[in-house]
């Protein structure tokens, strides 16, 4: 009975450890990058997010991300969306904000997932729990040639 309780306790600890490893290794955030070839009259960019590829898409930044390029040379950009729920899938659309106040939405919709999610975390947790149970079951096995009738190794 004691051996079984030790295995259960070790399995629970390893299960929680597995979930923690996945969460820390793939925290809830989505990396978004884009490049421009040229930026004629571009003041900046709004990154918009939706829960569906059909939208609606709402801006996730309060102000436009400032344009770094010029009419002849574009630039590279990156943004990390941290205001997300772990494991949830999001859809993004980029809008260029012009110096005159207008904006142009790019037609491409990009999908991103915030971290690994529960499926991966549970799988790793179960795997580590099984390993922990096996190791603890084997390590608490009575040694051959030892009697445990009196609990002190004597017969």
Class by SSE composition: alpha+beta
Mean pLDDT: 83
CATH class of one domain: Mainly Beta
Tell me the strand percentage band.
25-35%
- Radius of gyration based on Cα positions: 27 Å
Q: Quick one: how many beta strands?
A: 8
Mass-distribution shape: rod-shaped
Please write the string of helix (H) and strand (E) elements: HEEEEEEEEH
Distance between the termini: 21 Å
At CATH level 2, the architecture of one domain is Sandwich
Major sheet characteristics: 6 strands, antiparallel
Within the CATH hierarchy, at the fold level, what is the topology of one domain?
Immunoglobulin-like
Question: Uncertain regions: pLDDT < 50 for 5+ in a row?
Answer: none
Helical run tally:
2
Kindly state the percentage of residues in helix.
25-40%
Please give a structural write-up:
With 155 residues, this protein is an alpha+beta fold. It has a domain at 28-116: Immunoglobulin-like (Sandwich). The chain is 30% helix and 27% strand. Strands 2, 3, 4, 6, 7 and 8 form a 6-stranded antiparallel beta sheet that branches. A hairpin with a 7-residue loop joins strand 2 and strand 3. Helix 1 (2-25) packs antiparallel against helix 2. The longest helix is centred in the N-terminal third of the chain and has 24 residues, at 2-25. The protein is rod-shaped.
Secondary-structure blueprint of this entry?
Elements: H1 2-25, E1 30-35, E2 42-50, E3 58-59, E4 65-66, E5 76-81, E6 89-98, E7 103-105, E8 110-113, H2 118-139
Antiparallel strand pairs: 1-5, 2-3, 2-4, 2-6, 6-7, 6-8
Helix pairs in contact: 1-2
